[in-house]
Amino acid sequence: MRLISCYIANFGLHHDKKIDFNPGLNSFYWKNGEGKTTLTVFIKAMLYGFGDNRSDTERAKYLPWQGGKYGGSLTFEAGGKAYVVERTFGKKQAEDTFVLRDEKTGGVSNSYTENLGFELFGIDREGFMRTAFLSEKSITTADRIT
Questions:
Q1: In whole angstroms, how far apart are CA 109 and each of 9, 44, 75, 106?
Q2: Cα separation of 130 and 145, whole Å?
Q3: Distance between CA atoms of 57 and 63, rounded to whole angstroms?
Q4: Is 24 left (phi over 0), alpha (psi -120 to 50) or beta?
Q5: Most exposed: 84, 85, 100, 143, by fewest CB within 10 Å?
Q6: What is the mean pLDDT of residues 23-47?
Q7: Distance (Å, whole) CA 62 – CA 45
């Protein structure tokens, strides 16, 4: 699986933002408060959605600051084929939408379901964040290459 790009319509402080990913490792060196963590939560939300309303505080935390459509899209490649997952989020899980499209044709694809992240990686939402994201707080001086 490889990320190609994402479009953030509205998610936390991000609004109308397109990000292209390079093959291999991608690093983001944005200043504090410019949305690095928000980007990682957005990617997780595109792959996994949000949890149920009782246990998911992220849904409320990342409601768009400026209002508008809550969500966006993520373009990725898996199994030699490119897809675009589009999700919008409401204040409740019942208001969320999910569409998976074939990136080449634009048609709806049934290759994966709303459980996209688990189907791709075989791990749940929390496991994804523990394996795919390294916070600057989790890196000590001994881990840095000079």
A1: 22, 20, 13, 9
A2: 22
A3: 10
A4: left
A5: 143
A6: 83
A7: 10
